[in-house]
Every structure is written in C-alpha cells, then in structure tokens.
Design brief:
12 helices, seven-stranded mixed beta sheet, Aspartate Aminotransferase, domain 2, two-stranded antiparallel sheet, binds pyridoxal-5'-phosphate, alpha/beta, single chain, 340 residues
Length: 340
C-alpha cells in the first residue's frame, strides 16, 4: 500500500487533534457541579440521554471514524460460528476479533452436552443463583476449575468483564493500592476505578520496576493488589510469574492473574500459566478467567482459597452498598412514611 502524502498525514493529524480536543471538552462536562440557585433552570444535560457526555463522546468518535473513512467496528452481525474466518453480509473475512481458541464453540460434542443440559435444567435458574439455588452443573464446573488451578474453590459469574469489575471493586477500597501491568485489560481498570483505591501501573512485564514501586509505596496502603495477565492477547507475550510471586511475597501484597487468554492454550495440557511454570496454584491469591474464549461459553471465574470464594459468592453482588468510605452525600436515605 502506498504511504500517505505529507498533506494527507497533516490532515490526519489535524483531524486527530480536533477529535482529542472535542473529547476532552465532552469529558470536562462530567465534572461535579455546585448546587443550583433556587430559581434557575435544571440544565438539559441532567435529564436527557442525548445530552449526556458519554453519548456526545460516541458521536465525536463516530464522526472522526467517518472522516478517516472507517465504519463503526462495534456490534457487527456475524452470520455463523466464530472461527479463523467469519461471514459478514454474506462475505467471508479473516477473523481477528474473537477467541474460539480450540474450536469448542460449535464443536458437536459441546453442542450436544449443552442441549442435554438445557433439556434437563431449562435455560435459566430463573432468578439469581444466590437465592433461587444452583444446579449440579454449576458445582461441577466450579470444582473442575478449582482442581485445574490447585486451589480450594471457584465461583463463576455471568460475564468475564463483570468478574473483574465486581471482584476488584468489592475487595478493595480507598485505603488500598492496585498496581498493574500497563497493558492490563479494561475490566481490571474499571474494577480499580469502582473500588476507589489508588491505581498505579508499571512497565509491561517489568517485575524489577514493580519491586521498586512497591519498595516506595507499600507502607502507604493497607491491602495492595498486583494485577497481571497470564498471556497478553494483543502482544502474545506473558509475565515471568515466579519472579512476580517472589515480589508479592516480599512485599506482602496480593497477586491476581487474569487467565482469559492463557487458559486452554498455555502449558502442556492447556491449563494455563500455572502449568507453564509448574507453580503451586496457592502462590497466586486470585486466579481469574473468562468462559467466553477457550471455554466456548459466556461468563467468568475466580478461583482461590475458600475464605476468598465464600464471601465473594455471598457479598460481591452487593458491591455498591457494601462500599465503605462512600461520601455521606451519596448514601441512600428514605424520606417520608411508607403507605400502609
Ligand atoms: C484479559 C481479559 N480479561 C477479561 C476479559 C473480559 O471477558 P469477557 O469478554 O468474557 O467478558 C477479556 C475480554 O476480552 C480479556 O481479554
């Protein structure tokens, strides 16, 4: 492909700068405001979805894409099973966007087992598993995951992304530190944001940089969580896990490893980075993974010691009301009497 002319590059740069400027403006609108004067109008962007900063940011991104001649890549309709290739609008494409690593999604044995389970248990527990009860397949799946990681127990949740958000958001708070590889997935970042903990990143796979940071920072916080991925999906490399374990032990921190892309493809039997390095599963405090990649389903898991899994199972769903140190102004109160 011919490289762009100087004016073409300049135009791209100008569009990019204009976009960044508009996005910053839209973001600035999310900042806190003081209470309004008694007689003033309530601004439209406090009660209209089309005026909310997130919606405006999206329009800016779409417009920018149009200027670069790029259509929205989101929510494309694929007409078959996700594999090395895919079909969109009747046309075959090479598929770089999904992770059916072992071809289990669409595999006849998996499809048959899913059909049998549906016939036996229906398609839902018809409420939350917490209160309405679970089915034997839930227990079997969690026990199998715990065995693979060599830990006491595991819990599966309904989304991989939400597993990170919920777990990190629930376990950590304003007195804690979350320290992560600079390439960590968005779900861990959102979890850290929800937790209210201080967040710092270190250079990709650089355990010496992490050690140095912890030497400076550890004593300013209560709990410290280090978050890594077992295999980085976009770069295809992985951390030197034994080195990271030694550092977390030295600083009395907790270590979480996101196995979204290592489970199923790393190690002799595909049991992930634990198998790759032949380490004791208990040396990692929180094993996390998704069910949507190799496992051909939907959801996520956390595996670890019983004390972690037991209270995650019961309390993590209540993360928002459990949040300690929430500013008083944000707490919920009821005004007035309930009708008899
Ligand atoms: C490293 C990592 N963690 C978590 C997730 C979220 O998993 P899911 O897409 O199953 O919600 C992803 C998704 O791509 C991921 O790449």
């Amino acid at each position: 492909m011919a490289s762009k002319s100087l004016t073409g590059q300049l135009k791209d740069q100008l569009i990019r700068q204009a976009l960044e400027h508009k996005l910053k403006q839209a973001e600035a609108e999310t900042q806190d405001v003081n209470p309004l004067a008694l007689n003033s109008d309530i601004p439209e962007n406090w009660y209209r979805f089309d005026q909310l900063p997130g919606f405006k940011q999206l329009q800016i991104i779409y417009k920018g894409g149009e200027q670069f001649g790029i259509a929205s890549p989101f929510f494309r309709v694929h007409e078959g099973i996700a594999g090395a290739t895919t079909r969109i609008n009747g046309k075959e494409f090479i598929n770089y966007a999904s992770y059916n690593y072992l071809g289990l999604s669409g595999h006849p044995v998996v499809a048959e087992a899913a059909k049998r389970a549906i016939e036996q248990y229906g398609t839902s527990v018809s409420a939350s598993r917490l209160v309405s009860g679970e089915r034997p397949v839930h227990r079997q799946l969690e026990a199998e995951i715990a065995t693979i990681y060599g830990v006491d127990d595991a819990v599966v949740m309904v989304s991989g992304h939400a597993t990170n958000v919920t777990t990190i958001g629930y376990l950590f708070g304003a007195n804690d530190l979350i320290i992560h590889d600079e390439l960590i997935h968005n779900s861990s970042l959102v979890g850290a944001q929800l937790s209210g903990a201080k967040r710092i990143s270190f250079a990709h796979n650089d355990y010496a940089a992490l050690d140095k940071l912890l030497s400076q920072q550890r004593r300013h916080y209560q709990k410290v969580l280090i978050v890594l991925e077992g295999l980085y999906s976009m770069d295809g490399d992985y951390p030197n896990l034994p080195e990271f374990i030694a550092i977390k032990q030295k600083h009395k921190a907790l270590l979480m490893v996101d196995e979204a892309h290592s489970f199923g493809v790393m190690g002799k039997r595909g049991f992930g980075i634990r198998e790759q390095f032949n380490i004791d599963g208990k040396d990692v405090d929180i094993w996390m993974g998704t069910l949507s990649k190799t496992l051909a389903g939907c959801g996520g898991f956390i595996a670890g010691e019983s004390a972690l899994i037991e209270h995650l199972k019961i309390f993590s769903a209540w993360v928002f009301i459990q949040r300690r140190n929430a500013p008083a102004s944000r707490s919920v109160c009821t005004i007035g009497a309930r009708a008899a």
